[in-house]
Every structure is written in C-alpha cells, then in structure tokens.
Design brief:
alpha/beta; Rossmann fold; 2 domains; 7-stranded mixed sheet; 12 helices; binds nicotinamide-adenine-dinucleotide
Length: 337
C-alpha cells in the first residue's frame, strides 16, 4: 500500500483525496496540505480518514512515512514543489500542466534525471473508458494506418473572467487536454500547428487577451492530420467526442449521458444531455490514473503518462499561441526548449 501526501486541497485535490480513499486499493492518503487550510476543509479531511492535515506542504516532503506526493496546487507552484519533492526522494504525480513555463519544465526534468523516481502527469482523459477504447482500436491496427484524428472539446460554460486572466490562455488551460488526446489517440507526436480562433461566447474574454472558440489543425509526425474544435460554451453541455479515421476504417465515440433513454412522442425524439462537466464525465478516470501511478511505484514499472507526455502538450500549446498571434502554421521545432 502506497502512502500518499496530497499538496493542495482545492477542487482537484479534494477529487483525488476522495477517489483514492474510496476507489484506489493500492494507495491511501496519509496527509494533505494547503496554505489556506480552514476548519471546514480540515473537518472534511478528518472525516475522510486523512490523519495528517497541515498548512505547509514541506511537512509532507519531510515525512518518512510518505512515499509519493500528488501535486494538486495552483499551476504556478507545480514545478518548484515537484523539484523539492524529487530532492526529498518522493515519487511525484503532478496535475497538468507541469508548468506554463518551458524553462521550469526543463528544471523538473533535470532534477528527475537519474533518481529512479516515478513522475506521472495528470492527463486523466487517457483513462476515460471511451477514449481508452478508441486508443485500443488504433493500437491493435483495427483501423489501419491513421489518416485523420478529429476531437470535439467544448465546455458547458465559460469560466469567470478572473479565472481567464490567470489561466495562461485557452491553449494552456483547456486545449492542453486535447493536445494530449491527439498524441494519445494517434500514437504520434505533433509537428505543426495552425489555429483559427475567435471570441464568440463572451466579448470580455477578448479584452483579457484570450479567445473562446478555436479550430486547430495539426500535422503529425506519422503523416496523419488532426483537428480540434474547441468552444468555451456549448448550450447542451460538456461535448467530448473523438474520431480516428484510418486506411481500414474509423473508430468514434460519443458523449456519456446520465442514461441512454430516448423518449419518442408525436412531438419528436429526445435524449438526455451529456454529463455536465469534467467532474461528472471523467470521475472514474481520476481513480484509474492514480491506481496506475501507485502500481508503477509499487512494481517499479513505467508510469503511463511520463514527463515527456507532460512536456509535449505545453510545446504544442506554445506553438498554437504563436500561430494565433502570427496567423500562420507554426512548427514545434520553432518553439525554443
Ligand atoms: N486533470 C484535470 O482535469 C484537472 C482539473 C482541474 C484542475 N486541474 C489542475 O489542478 C490544479 C489545481 O486546480 P484546482 O481547480 O483544484 O484549483 P483550486 O484553486 O481549486 O485549488 C488549488 C489549491 O492549491 C492551493 N495551493 C496554492 N499554493 C499552494 C502550496 N504552496 N501548497 C499547497 N497548496 C497550495 C490553494 O490554496 C488551493 O486550495 C491546476 O494546476 C489545474 O490545472 C486539473
């Protein structure tokens, strides 16, 4: 059983704490730390059976009973905490993105080199049952050589402007998952990105220097083409679909809904809207990714999403931002790393 310390008790820190406690048999949460720990969160943690609650993540790094940490704090803290954790000899599971700053990712890679410690990045969508099935069809050659990857990724509602201002922009905040999906589903790296973007949901997002709607096309290293279609607001809910088309056929998945009930009357045929957002749609994937991380630590086997898998979507996001700014296709090789 792997003893885990969770750093950051915000939205995703709580999701992981609960999913590990209830669904991950290989690991337990021994400690949780957050500088803004309040009485309510402390009670929630104690009720969950977490023995050590603190305001200082260093208490976790210094704890000899803890073998691995989950970094669930705000993005701008990930890299520095990861480096400290590695130096303290802890295996690391780091929420996405490792950093918005490529130089910081490089520092984490340097710190990790030669330590033998595991480092996994929280690209949880890889463990969604639908996308796993798409990957499996591609990997086993059922659709032949990959020619086209199509990803639809639309949120149910735009975030607050305060969030948009510090998010790092749509590509680093939202599309980063879709960039990872492109690599995962195709089994190939991305070589070139071209973006058409617009602000159609909320004009105030443009005033923050961001966009809320994007069509992103990519050329992949294996010769295939990919397209991502993003919106910050889909009126019918969280729209998360993917299709891979190849020389022998295609594989596609649609949205998950609370039920598959379809009501047919003289007025028409209706079904349920998609599950509302990522907490509903991807809940099972959060426990699966941590379960596989724990197995990798316990059995000393490779993690399923390694540090290069954490780096690549950030490089693609940087290329996408450059393409948006300069109105031209941008090769990943143009991004300095
Ligand atoms: N994989 C996913 O689908 C997914 C979903 C949501 C968030 N995330 C990522 O998780 C991270 C956190 O997002 P969130 O939505 O939970 O944000 P949040 O603001 O709800 O929580 C972040 C928490 O980190 C705490 N924190 C800040 N500095 C800290 C430090 N030095 N030590 C310990 N705790 C610290 C804050 O007090 C806050 O409670 C972000 O990097 C985000 O990109 C990933």
């Amino acid at each position: 059983m792997l003893n885990i310390g969770i750093i950051g008790a915000g939205r995703i820190g709580k999701v992981h704490a609960e999913s590990i406690t209830y669904h991950v048999k290989e690991a337990g949460v021994l400690a949780i730390a957050d500088p803004f720990m309040n009485a309510e969160t402390e009670k929630w943690a104690k009720d969950l059976g977490i023995k050590k609650v603190s305001k200082d993540y260093r208490s976790i790094l210094q704890d000899p009973e803890i073998q691995a940490v989950l970094i669930c704090s705000s993005t701008n803290t990930h890299a520095d905490i990861a480096i400290e954790a590695i130096k303290a000899g802890k295996h690391v599971f780091c929420e996405k993105p490792i950093s918005q700053d490529l130089a910081k990712i490089k520092e984490v890679m340097e710190a990790l080199k030669g330590t033998g410690l595991k480092f996994q990045v929280g690209f949880n969508r890889r463990f969604d049952h639908n996308f796993e099935a798409v990957r499996e069809a591609v990997k086993t050659g059922k659709i032949g050589d990959v020619h086209v990857v199509k990803i639809t990724s639309r949120d149910p509602d735009a975030p607050s402007l305060d969030y948009v201002k510090v998010s790092g922009g749509i590509f680093l905040d939202m599309t980063i998952h879709d960039f990872d999906m492109t690599r995962y589903l195709s089994g190939s790296d991305v070589e070139e990105v071209y973006v058409n973007g617009a602000c159609l949901v909320n004009p105030a997002i443009a005033e923050c220097g961001d966009i809320d709607t994007a069509i992103i096309t990519m050329k992949l290293a294996n010769g295939a083409l990919a397209v991502i279609d993003n919106s910050r607001k889909a009126a019918y809910g969280y729209d998360q679909r993917a299709e891979v088309f190849g020389s022998k056929g295609q594989v596609a998945v649609t949205n998950d809904a609370p039920s598959t009930a379809v009501i047919s009357t003289e007025n028409g045929v209706t079904g349920e809207k998609p599950l509302y957002f990522f907490l509903e749609r991807y809940m099972a994937s959060f426990s699966k990714e941590v379960s596989l991380f724990a197995q990798a630590v316990i059995n000393n086997t490779p993690v399923p999403v390694d540090i290069n898998d954490g780096l690549q979507p950030v490089l693609i996001a940087k290329a996408a931002a450059k393409s948006m700014k300069e109105g031209r296709p941008v090769k990943l090789s143009e991004i300095e790393f």
